[in-house]
Amino acid sequence: MAPTYQDRDSLQLTMAKIALAIFDFDGTLVDTAPDLIRSTNLFLESKGFAPLPPERIRAEIGMGLRKLIVDLHPEPITDPRVVQKIEADFLKLYESEFLSSPKLFTGAMEFLSEWEGQIAIVSNKRIRFITPILEKLGLDQLPWSAVIGGDTFSNMKPHPEPLLAAMQAANVDVSETVMVGDGHPDVRGAVGLGMRCVAVEFGYTPVTELMELGAWRSIGNFSELLPLLRSQ
Questions:
Q1: What are phi and psi of 144, to 5 degrees?
Q2: Sheet holding 144-148: strands in order across?
Q3: Of 6, 27, 9, 1, residue with least CA distance to 157
Q4: CA dist., res. 232 & res. 215, Å (int)
Q5: Residue spans of the chain under pLDDT 70
Q6: Looking at residue 15, what is its pLDDT?
Q7: Other C-beta atoms within 10 Å of 167: how many?
Q8: Where are the alpha helices (H) located in 47-160, listed in sequence order?
Q9: More exposed terminus of the chain, fewer Cβ within 10 Å: N or C?
Q10: Nearest 5°: CA angle at 225, between 220 and 229?
Q11: Do the Cβ atoms of 35 and 100 come closer than 8 Å?
Q12: Per-position DSSP letters for 25-66, written without gaps between them
């Protein structure tokens, strides 16, 4: 059962000062939707299928590329070998598109530069796509305590493994950590550990869904995050 709003408020009283901010990647720090949408529709058209509306594709971002392309495939796929082939075909196409137009969400760099605590990334995106985007946007120069992708460990969000690894790298516990994200895996992963989660309203999932899942607070832009975390 998701915490009630009263539970979320009382959570603040039992948790320590925030020392680590963990960020999701797609839809939280970086707007990668245009490249994912274009790649998905190019892939579908290459297979003889009609393109999908951008909002339909955007809603599926967050659970990893395999789930994205399988869920959006017009024909049901159950054979693991077919899933592997479709995923490989899609990845080849995406590799030529993913650096076309990623951009930081407004205020993200300012927050990352001003925040006194530690920062980490825990994403369900493959690490080989995260690293070049970080470099393209100048984020690779920041002092990340951990950058974890969907293929770094055996499990990805909402499984606790990547979040626990990020906390271990920063030498903090769950009471000192906040997850900032835009998707169900972010909120479910945080809530499962008793971690505070800030839902972003500018991401790819309706913020009302994230609050219903148990997100602690929401922000409309990054300018709201620094005062929120400093007040804890």
A1: -65, 130
A2: 144-148, 118-122, 20-23, 177-181, 196-200, 217-219
A3: 27
A4: 16
A5: 1-15, 62-64
A6: 63
A7: 25
A8: 54-58, 65-72, 80-95, 108-114, 127-137
A9: N
A10: 145
A11: yes
A12: SBTTTEE-HHHHHHHHHHHHHHTTPPP--HHHHHTTTTS-HH
Q: What's the CA gap between 29 and 94, in Å, rounded?
A: 20
d(CA 189, CA 10): 20
Indicate the pTM of the whole model. 0.89
* Burial grade of 4 (CB within 10 A; 0-12, 13-18, 19 or more): exposed
- Residue from 24, 31, 182, 186 carrying the catalytic annotation: 24
Question: Which residue type, as a one-letter code, is found at position 214?
Answer: G
Convert the pLDDT of each residue in 152-182 to its tens digit. 999 999 999 999 999 999 999 999 999 999 9
140 is catalytic: no
3-class secondary-structure state, position 88: helix
CA distance 182 to 42: 25
For residue 150, give the 3-state DSSP assignment: coil
**CA-based nearest residue to 72, from 56, 87, 84:** 56
Cα angle 77, 72, 198 (rounded to 5 degrees) comes to 120
CA distance 119 to 177: 10
Per-residue pLDDT tens over the stretch 193-226: 999 999 999 999 999 999 999 999 999 999 999 9
Name the residue among 213, 148, 208, 212 with its Cα closest to residue 187: 213
Strands 103-104 and 217-219: unpaired
